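sorry to bug you again but im stuck and you know this stuff better than me. what follows is a protein written twice so to speak, once as letters and once as structure tokens for the fold. mainly i need to know what kind of three dimensional shape the backbone takes. anything you notice is useful, everything is just below:
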Amino acid sequence: MTSSQKAKKQELPPTAWAVLGLLSFPGERTGYELKKWADSSLRFFYWSPAISQIYAELRRLEDLGYAASARSGPEEARAKRRYAITDAGREALAGWAADTAEAGPPVLKHGLLLRVWLGHLAEPERLRAMVGEHLERTRAELAAVREAMEHAGGVPEWTFPALALRWSERQHLAELELAQALLEDLADLGAGREDPTATAVSRAGAGAEAGAETGAGAEAGAETGAGAETGAETGSGGRQADGDAPTPG
């Protein structure tokens, strides 16, 4: 590998590694077939690149020597170019997959929550409708994940993709639970109940005020205690009438 190729290897985006990962399973595939597989697997836990991105990455991988392609012969009515991973590509992919330092934290971009965050500018009914639509969409995605799990089940080469799909199933179930709880929160606000945040702030303010009063009471108590002590001393010298000075002994 030339120095230029090594530099390009270091600059490979995650999408390139994902496409190379699709090629790492047995068989040769066209760009269209890679797109279909990404749609039925990768998108449930990462994302599915556009077909144009897939072909762009395939060209990059070929330039690096990580992938090779061959055009189909005259036996097929429509010529197709199929791609396969090379030994160098498999070695590079194995090194990248084992480098946990490059994984990075998961990135959450929840479009629905962004709109809820701006809920003071929207009608409550519309927000609840949006959450309802999100619930339906998530249920449909969950069904698709389970369908993909059925296809992957029992195929030895797909053992680890099946694990990723199982994680995705759990993630979608959790998303359904979170969305349902959010819908209930919005219903509470729509029913005229107190804003939980405002209530918490109000309680905190009341607690601080009560604390201040308690502090004043403690100070008064201390003074009362001092008076009681004085009274005890007075008791030995004579009884004190209301407003009168202590009677001398």
Observations:
- The chain is about 65% helix and 5% strand.
- Residues 16 and 56 are 9 Å apart (CA to CA).
